[in-house]
Amino acid sequence: MLTELEKKIIASIQGDIPVTERPYLEIADGLGISENALLEGIKSLCDRKMIRRFGATLRHQKSGFQANAMVAWRVDEKRIDEVGTQMASFQAVSHCYRRNPTDRWPYNLYTMIHAKDEASCREIVRKLSKETMVDRFAILFSRRELKKTSMEYFPLPSENET
Amino acid sequence: MSLTDTTDRAILNRIQSHFPITPQPYLSIANDLGLTEAEVIERIRRLKENGIIRRIGANFIPNKLGFVSTLCAARVPEDKIDSFADAINRYPGVTHNYQRDHEFNIWFTFIAPSMEEIDNNLQNISRETGISDIISLPATKTYKIKAKFDL
After folding, report:
1. Is the pTM of this model over 0.90?
2. Chain B contact for A29, CB < 8 A?
3. Do A13 and B27 touch (CB under 8 A)?
4. Is the ipTM of this complex over 0.90?
5. Full pLDDT tens readout for chain B, 151 residues
6. Distance from B146 to chain A by nearest Cα, in Å?
7. Which CATH architecture has domain B62-137?
8. CA closest to B62 among chain A residues
């Protein structure tokens, strides 16, 4: 499915690309391929929908979205697609997934909500609840970020000292 | 709020997705926004130094690369949170980890080549930390993953 070169290309763009005039040339040199081969390789990964998003990841807290809440909802399975789609249409909802409930945790729909403060998050949750008529939910505000990184797929072998 | 001007906002709105795949991407951005390449580079460097930009790069869909992912939750006593976090953060596949205010108070994402591997890792974590209440909630359907935040 993926060639060895493609794995190397993935590993080379999953971190932080340089902010210089020719960032791809720098990366290509590191891989021992031409700049053009790298550009074509990245475009191919995009075309094959392997890259979900290519660009800058922001720190929300510093860009005006200070509060984030995960909301777990208990939705009647018969309505899950309808409710999931409806919740996804809200601007403040960044992520929306269905997950299987467990005996210890009965919720089946999950939304991430970003807003300027906790009161705004609660207000959005109230609206979501009202519009979808789902009134069983748990709001989980984040208290502390313990880790946030991007996944390292196919890590390159660490460089030997010359 | 350290975002002071509209040019910074325009740049941030432009580069969160569809970052140019061209030999001089910052020139492409500059052309889109009516700025110079040097100005775009200087501003993006500053936005990274300020910590507003965490990174610039690709975000992959795990399943398309032959990986699986799940959301895990654990019920951890207050005095064990730090040691539990250390134990799970050691796994490179744990990419996001948050303390949240609920009975299930530690929430983390786990990516690995197979669900078996994740389940084995969770069992090892339980053994090592004494925390037995860990649940794994893989997504069965995605309704939305937002690509960008309008500033």
Report:
1. no
2. no
3. no
4. no
5. 456 689 999 999 999 999 999 999 999 999 999 999 999 999 999 999 999 999 999 999 999 999 999 999 999 999 999 999 999 999 999 999 999 999 999 999 999 999 999 999 999 999 999 999 999 999 999 999 986 777 7
6. 5
7. 2-Layer Sandwich (3.30)
8. A50
What single string gives the DSSP state of each residue in chain A? Answer: ---HHHHHHHHHHSS----SS-HHHHHHHHHTS-HHHHHHHHHHHHHTT-EEEEEEEE-GGGGT--EEEEEEE---GGGHHHHHHHHHTSTTEEEEEEE--BTTB---EEEEEEESSHHHHHHHHHHHHHHHT---EEEEEEEEEEEE-----SPPPPPPP-
List chain A residues with CB under 8 Å of B146: 93-95
CATH 3.30.70.3460 segments of chain A = 60-141
B9, B56, B63, B110: best to mutate for the A interface, most A CBs within 10 A: B56
Where does A60-141 sit in CATH, by number?
3.30.70.3460
Which chain B residues touch A19 with a CB distance below 8 Å? 26, 41, 44-45, 48, 56
